[in-house]
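Allow me, if you will, to draw on your knowledge of protein folds for a short while. I have a record of one protein: its chain in single-letter code and its fold written as discrete structure tokens. The full record is reproduced below for your convenience:
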Amino acid sequence: MKTNRTKFLAIAILTTAVLVSCNNDDDVVVTPVIPATDFSGTYVQKDQMARPAINTVFIASGTPKDNFNMTTPSTMGATYQSVFQSRLLALNPGYTTNALGQTAAQFTGLLATDVLGVAKSGTTTFFDGVNVLTGRALADDVIDTELLLIFGGPTGGSNPGLTSDNVDANDKAFSTSFPYLASAW
């Protein structure tokens, strides 16, 4: 009998300790300790994504994306422009020019070189109606811009059902301090 009381008392103390130590600290921000990084070794380029979704759309299924991702940007245009152009015309057979006045060859030549240009002065944006590919701000709607240039035609008004992904904002606001990204869910 005394053994049962001891067991019951031990379980009660353990349960109390567990319940007391639980609290609602989900909102507490814990700064992780990041260990020193070892940069020795061999590194391999795995992906280039200056313009999101471009190689996903224009490098057709079955084509090794690794080849594109490991191509030096200075040779990308010459190597992949014709691949991009045939894919563009397969996606939009009625393509003549885009809202920037670019022919299929001009547009795909620009896209095939997957680098992000950055304006050293002036507006930094992917596209704001005036400035084009002068960088990329976090709030820029990159996918809508790409869809507009692929399907929008000379005025941007063609194929209105294809020129937007209809995602008009982040699920969380950007931070006002570095690194500016919204916190994870």
Notes: The CA atoms of residues 152 and 158 lie 5 Å apart. The two ends are 51 Å apart (CA to CA). DSSP finds six helices and no strands in the chain. The chain has a mean pLDDT of 81.
